[in-house]
Amino acid sequence: MLEAITICTSQVRAAGFASELRLRMNAQARQAAPFHALAADADRLQECLQADPARLDAALLQFRARLEACRSAVATVYAHLDEHGVSVSVVFRIRQVRERILRIRALLDCLVEPPPGVATARLLAHMALVRQDRRSLRALVASNSSLLAAKVTERSSEVGEHYITRDWPAYRTMLRQAAGGGALTGATTLLKFGVVGLGLTAFWDGFWSSVVYAASFVLIQLLHFTLATKQPAMTAPAMAAKLRDFREPGMLDSFVDEVSHLVRSQAAAVMGNVGVVVPVVVLLSVLMQVATGAPMLTTERTEYVLHSLTLLGPSALFAAVTGILLFASSIIAGWVENWFVFNRLDSALRYNPAFTRRLGVARADRWAHFLRHNISGFAANISLGFMLGMVPAVAGFLGIGLELRHVTLSAGQLAAAGASIGWGVLREPALWWCVACIPLIGALNLGVSFYCAFRLALLSHNVGSLDRARIRSAIWSRVRRRPLDFLWPATPAHPAAPTAP
Prior knowledge:
This protein has 501 residues and is an all-alpha fold. The chain folds into two domains: 2-135; 156-486. The chain has 21 helices and no strands. It has helices at 2-17, 19-22, 27-32, 38-51, 56-75, 77-84, 88-112, 116-134, 137-160, 168-197, 202-222, 231-241, 251-292, 299-308, 315-342, 345-351, 353-359, 361-397, 407-421, 429-460, 465-481. Helix 9 packs across helix 15 (315-342), helix 10 crosses helix 19 (407-421) and helix 19 (407-421) packs antiparallel against helix 20 (429-460). The radius of gyration is 29 Å and the shape is elongated.
């Protein structure tokens, strides 16, 4: 056991001196230099165990305090990663140091506890589990998935905070931003049908549809509007980040409050998108018919839309697949932003002589600042646009009849089909089956995307099944007691007016 403590101590000390961790610790941790005296404290403890039992307690207390100082110093690296990007290798080194410190503590318990049987049994059981995990493919996949999840979700959580509304002013702002996103999506619907009308081959039809989608989504981002279905994959990591200290008193109720804020924010975004895209598409269809004498959609295309969007078809499955693609776009966005920040590309743009010579110092600084704050959105929007356009084309090439159902785009397509038929469409049962399908598409887009992102974020924070059960129970309790919290913000209570004496 003394030899094991010596080996683990040398490994912890070597990791603390490694540049990957040492340069990322804060100034206070580097100044305290806890790793410098760690080996000396371990040697002193071994001497007391073997030849000087009178000073054992003091040496043991000193060594434990030094181990805690080393653990705290390594933990400061997380603050650097949050600001400058996450590296899988760095996170692995941090976790490895923590595990080795825990192993040293377990060995010390076996050496100094009066009845060593319990501590020894605990150590042997832990070593058996570690040995089993080393031979388990499932444990290997789980540990690496946790590292990758930490890399992606830490970046997405920073963006997701902007999509959560907590009071009436923020709620109204979300409605306005969603309305703007719905208006632009109406124009996107027109352009999409224009691409379809060209009669291109499957690949080029998917490619130019992807360009239309990506350009529309990027424009929505630059105008600071909102597309509802992009929210869940970004907000889920932000929600999971609040679970780090949820075992503290009151933190679970605070997390449930955040869940209610999130649900009503997404409901507001969906209402804003769908509530505006329908009249905008109808208006564009009327203007097009007045200008050209022909409706936006041909009779054949109108029948196809009414047939494909019906609740009686596979739209629910397609909407769930779309939710997975929405989640995938957030993964791409988190990875690209982390890569951009970790490699300090904003500093490269700001100080590179070639850029500053061509753009000027002030303009290079503005470009670097602009890309630093928008790179995640660009990656998410462009990747989502190309997945929405190209996935059906590739699936068709493989003989898979896969289509995608995005709630805002589907509502716009349905509005175009109804406007092309005219008022008589209101008497068609097919229209109302499609109208009934729109809420289901929205729920599946949001629900599947949020579920995938939230599970990944829980994995990154090592939240176990028992804690997940506590979270579910707390959320359902809030739904039963205060269901309106999930629909709109609570009106703040006004203080009572003072009465006249």
